[in-house]
Design a protein that fits this description.
The complex is a heterodimer.
Chain A: H1 4-25, H2 30-54, E1 60-68, E2 71-72, E3 75-77, E4 81-90, E5 94-102, E6 108-112, E7 116-122, E8 127-135, E9 139-151, E10 158-172, H3 177-180, E11 202-213, H4 225-231, E12 235-240, E13 246-252, H5 266-283, E14 287-293, E15 298-304, H6 307-321, H7 333-346, H8 362-365, H9 383-391, H10 393-412, H11 419-425, H12 427-440, H13 455-471, E16 477-482, H14 493-504, E17 508-513, H15 530-554, E18 560-562, H16 568-587
Chain B: H1 15-36, H2 42-57, H3 62-81, H4 87-111, E1 118-121, H5 136-143, H6 145-156, E2 163-164, H7 178-201, H8 210-239, H9 243-257, H10 259-283
Antiparallel strand pairs in B: 1-2
Helix pairs in contact in B: 1-2, 1-4, 2-3, 3-4, 4-7, 7-8
Classes of the chains: A alpha/beta, B mainly alpha.
């Protein structure tokens, strides 16, 4: 609570007070009285500041509104700018000097204005300020709250806390492809395939089927007036039936697809593709369904073509795009550093040494076991190295951070009390809980894992979702599988079985795979260095994996499209049009 | 105590700054007059000059040297003359010292910074991190190793470019704060003399030197408010603790009480897990 200025003053007062005490014993009390006066004043200032910092500041209330040109909004669109209006109110009392800074939102950038207020705060006068943000990517924009810094008017005391007011807004994919990809022309004028007879059926489409005599009850707008006038009797136009197509998008949202920079992950790419397909297909009055397969659950939206369905799909995609990896790993060094930086900022009250203690003697009396500081499979450390690690300031600091984070996570998520000890001694458990904490606060982090994201489970989930969608399908449909299947040929059995079922029911299946088609590298050039050889081997391995996956799906007549090359949205829509042709021809 | 003051700040244009500068100058002059009752010549002038210079040039360390100067002058004159002073003069001297400190720090808060440096580094988009070969200035610094070492030592201190800048207070200090400040200074000065007088009236226990007893009483008088305030604020703070804070406190307490037992259980669990992992690895081809 004491600032450097305050420490200097306290130290000086004690030194001069000691001199004054010695002088008072010799009969001159003036200096002692000066020091007593200073200490009384200092105590008064400290008491007032303590009251402000410990009691008054708890009455700070934050209200945040995100506004666009038309008013407050509850969901955002990627690529758009918004005003954020923050209003701070004090329940009672006053704060003589305070800096309230709204924490920069995760998933958006501040483009204009300062998200802070500096000055006095009184209960009767709430303060408000505005700034502008821009959402760069789809997902979730999370506002944590405001950082509050207090100081007394002399700058002798300083206190920092955080008013938590977490709010999340979905940043939906931008509606950019809707008009450019919408079907503008009429139906294809093609001959039906040989052997297929036309079966005309009246409906509510746009193509003229035939003209017939008027029957009572026919809507007047369907009367062909010119022809009726010519024939002198009422003639009614009859239109062809629409051929509604159903497209179900199955996304693999397992942890393996979430690894990477936020907004640039394979999952985010899938979500953008799926959003483009959904917007265009619903714009064409086709039915679109969605299944998002995570490691432990499947979120399923049955096909529909209403605007509510589109919003629901975009919302689900935004939620999926914001997912962060949760993998089993022993590498917690980076996670601890990130989590500590976050919690120091957002949970200063829970990280305070007054309630979250770390005894200084703990590293000596209860050092972490040998298997904790090293990753699994690492080299065992010698006793000397262990002793050195115990005394290293950086190791001690990491141990303290870890203990405080463990206590915070245990209390925040109301976990069993033994979790604290578990997180201290078990790297995997610690990494798991820290990932959960970071993911909740939308803090990006890097993780390395051998079996990133239980990929087998995720593929099984996707296979189950596909089987379910096929079982509920009514007509020939298009199923788009989006997932990372390259290099997992051995685990695709279940999925391939489901694809086979779909194909047997004459459905179309398309697979979208993240990345690009690997170049075909077969010939080893001469004169390569070791690093180039490794790169070459990796390329060759990627090529083989891609070809193997393509073969596995190709045997079932399922094409494999790269997500990062070409235009997968147009490819899917093209498939949809082909299906429309086939289906329309089959009905005639 | 090395924050660079903002010398371009126009003190006379800001009402609050003007008030505190005036208050500080008046208190410094009164300090000189009060010191003249104790000391003569340079010993009375030096603390006053230090205080005035510090106020005029916003020298942050001025109160430290001013107080040391007062202590030195009183120490020297006591050894020379063994003078006894009146309580009014003590009140004036104590009040002036506190007033100068108060005015000086408040003036500094207005003109320069009120908050300490933020140790967290911030991203500066105008100065992207340099990648690639070293630039000529880095090569020059490496070549001239002594300035480079100086540069490294200086770099450990938070600089204005790499750290968040301290908040400047542009007229945010309310002008109506100064009467309360002067009142608190006067009360503290009077209270110190009153307490000294009260301590004389409390008889010392047997076998206790009266001067030591009085000194002990004064120390107790100075520390007692700290204990009372700490207890009161701590109690109120504990009463307003959030459920998460309370849970954290209890979890921490439970862990510190049963740390050994918990750790033993976790180690057995870990041992079993590692054993399972090893068995799984052995089964792999």
């Amino acid at each position: 609570m004491l600032s450097p200025r305050g420490w200097w003053m306290l130290l000086l007062t004690l030194v001069v007070g000691t001199i004054g005490g010695v002088m008072a014993l010799r009969g001159s009390s003036t200096l002692l009285l000066v020091c007593v006066a200073i200490s009384l004043w200092y105590t008064w200032e400290w008491a007032t500041f303590c009251y402000y910092a410990r009691i008054t500041v708890r009455g700070l209330r934050l209200q945040r509104t995100v506004i666009d040109d038309r008013g407050p909004v509850t969901t955002l669109w990627a690529g758009q700018s918004y005003h954020v209006s923050v209003r701070v109110r004090l329940e009672r009392g006053r704060l003589p000097f305070v800096i309230v800074s709204d924490r920069s939102p995760a998933g958006a950038v501040i483009t204009e204005g300062q998200p802070r207020y500096t000055g006095q705060l009184r209960a009767e006068f709430p303060v408000a300020w505005k700034y502008r943000i821009r959402c760069d990517r789809i997902g979730v924009v999370r506002f944590e709250g405001a950082r509050v810094r207090l100081a007394d008017l002399q700058g002798l005391f300083y206190f920092e806390t955080f008013v938590r007011d977490p709010v999340e807004y979905f940043a939906l994919p931008a509606l950019t492809t809707l008009h450019s990809s919408r079907r503008g022309d009429k139906r294809f004028n093609m001959l039906p395939p040989p052997g297929v007879h036309r079966f005309r059926r009246p409906g509510t489409g746009s193509e003229l089927l035939e003209l017939r005599d008027y029957r009572p009850g026919d809507p007047p707008k369907r009367i062909a007036w010119k022809i009726s006038a010519r024939k002198d009797e009422l003639i009614t136009r009859e239109f062809e039936s629409e051929v509604p197509l159903r497209c179900t998008l199955l996304l693999d949202a397992s942890s393996a697809t979430r690894i990477g920079t936020p907004g640039d992950t394979a999952l985010a790419r899938f979500c953008i593709i799926a959003a483009g397909v959904a917007q265009t297909a619903i714009g064409n009055r086709d039915l679109v369904g969605l299944a998002i397969c995570t490691d432990d659950a499947v979120t399923y939206l049955p096909p529909a073509r209403s605007s509510t369905q589109l919003i629901a799909i975009l919302g689900q995609l935004a939620r999926a795009a914001a997912l962060q990896p949760q993998v089993a790993t022993d590498d917690i060094k980076g996670l601890i550093a990130r989590a500590h930086a976050l919690t120091t900022d957002v949970y200063p009250d829970l990280m305070s040494p007054t309630i979250n203690r770390f005894p200084l003697w703990l590293p000596w009396l209860a050092p972490q076991p040998a298997y904790v500081p090293r990753p699994r499979g690492g080299v065992r450390r010698s006793p000397w190295q262990r002793l050195r690690n115990i005394n290293l300031p950086s190791a001690r600091r990491r141990y303290a951070w870890r203990k405080r984070l463990a206590a915070l996570v245990t209390a925040k998520y109301a976990l069993p009390a033994g979790t604290l000890a578990l997180m201290l001694d078990d790297n995997a458990a610690c990494a798991w809980h820290l990932q959960r904490l970071l993911a909740e606060h939308r803090v990006p982090f890097d993780v390395r894992s051998d079996n990133a994201g239980h990929d087998a489970i995720a593929i099984e989930q996707q296979a189950r979702a596909l089987t379910r969608a096929v079982s509920r399908g009514r007509d020939n449909e298009l199923f788009v599988l989006m997932g990372d299947y390259v290099g997992r040929s051995g685990r695709l059995t279940e999925l391939l079985r489901s694809v086979r079922v779909a194909r047997a029911k004459h459905h179309q299946v398309l697979v979208v795979q993240p990345g690009r088609v690997a170049d075909d590298v077969t010939k080893l050039p001469d004169g390569l260095t070791a690093a180039e050889l490794v790169t070459f081997a990796e390329k060759q391995q990627a090529t083989r994996a891609w070809q193997s996956t393509r073969r596995a799906f190709g045997r079932l007549g399922v094409p494999l499209a790269p997500a990062d090359a070409g235009d997968p949205v147009r490819l899917i829509l093209h498939r949809l049009e082909q299906l429309r042709l086939i289906q329309g021809a089959g009905r005639r | 105590m090395s924050d660079a003051p903002n010398r371009r700040f126009d003190v006379w244009a800001d009402p609050a700054a003007r008030t505190y500068l005036t208050l500080g100058l008046v208190a410094a002059l009164a300090l000189g007059l009060a010191l003249m009752q104790h000391a003569e010549g340079i010993w009375a002038v030096v603390p006053t000059l230090v205080a005035i210079t510090g106020l005029m040039f916003r020298w942050l360390s001025a109160p430290v040297f001013m107080l040391l100067g007062v202590a030195l002058s009183l120490l020297v004159t006591q050894q020379q003359f063994h003078m006894m002073t009146s309580p009014i003069n003590d009140v004036l001297l104590a009040g002036c010292v506190v007033a100068v400190i108060l005015a000086h720090f408040r003036l500094y808060s207005i003109t320069s910074s009120i908050l300490p440096h933020d140790p967290r580094r911030t991203l500066d988009p105008s100065r992207p991190r340099h990648r690639g070969p070293p630039v000529w200035i880095e090569i020059l610094m490496v070549l001239t190793i002594v300035p480079y070492i100086v540069y490294l030592i200086r770099r450990k201190r938070p600089s204005q470019e790499t750290l968040m800048k301290p908040e400047r207070r542009d007229c945010v200090l309310a002008i109506d704060e100064w009467p309360a400040a002067v009142g608190s200074v006067a009360i503290c000065a009077v209270a110190s003399v009153v307490l000294w007088a009260v301590s004389e009236r409390i008889p010392p226990p047997r076998m206790t030197v009266p001067e030591q007893w009085r000194l002990g009483l004064m120390i107790w008088f100075a520390l007692m408010p700290v204990f009372i305030v700490a207890a009161f604020v701590g109690y109120r703070h504990a009463r307003r603790r959030s459920p998460t804070e309370a849970r954290l406190l209890l979890t921490d307490e439970l862990w510190s009480e049963t740390r050994g037992d918990q750790r033993r259980i976790v180690r057995w669990i870990n041992r079993a897990r590692l054993k399972q992992d090893n068995q799984r690895l052995e089964k792999l081809p």
